[in-house]
Every structure is written in C-alpha cells, then in structure tokens.
Amino acid sequence: MNKQDTFETVDAYIAAQPEVNRPLLQSLRETILKTAPEALEMISYQMPAYKLHGVLVYFAGYKNHIGFYPAGSGISTFLPELTAYKTSKGAVQFPLHKKLPLALIRKMVKHRVQENLLKQKNRKK
Hints:
With 125 residues, the protein is an alpha+beta fold. Helix content is 39%, strand content 22%. The radius of gyration is 14 Å and the shape is globular.
C-alpha cells in the first residue's frame, strides 16, 4: 500500500494491505458489522469507516499495528481495559503479533452506537 493509493471500497482497502494484515482487518471489519449491522460502511480519509448518525469508528492497517479509531469517548471510557495497548486521545494501536481483543472492540462499537443514537435523539427534541 502506498500513500498515494485511493480506495473506493473496504474490500479494495483490505486487498491492498500486506498479507499479514488482511485477516486481522477482515476480522475487525466483521466484528464491527456484526455489532452495528445498521452502520454504513465506507471509505473516509482513505480508511474504512462506519457511520450511523455520524461516525462510529475507523480502522487502518500499518506496518506494525492495526489502528482503531473509536473517537475520544471510545478511548476514555475503556482506558482501564486498554492498558496493554498504545493509546492516544482518539486511537488505540493493536500490535500485529497479538490477537485482536474482539470482545473489547465489540464493547467499544456498542458504546459508540449508543452515543450516536443519543445525540440523534437529542437533536430531534
């Protein structure tokens, strides 16, 4: 994958990744889609993105990790469970040599769905 690459679909994004990344990215994708089946899957900022009344999460493959972007609240809410990973305000890095914490990812996605649904409900008032 080159910095100049542009992607039309998540399938194209995953196919362009190094072979070692593909199964992890596909597993992450399936987990997100099963957890938030109503979410719209798209490419945004040249990364896979999932939206439901706004952005839920993004992810991206890198040389040494999978980046997962559940927004600031998705990180801060689960910080005690993320101590084994490198985090920043809105991102967590899952090393390629470890299994993805799919149960934790499901919880993070559910949290983001609930946040976005609440925001949508409050906008309608």
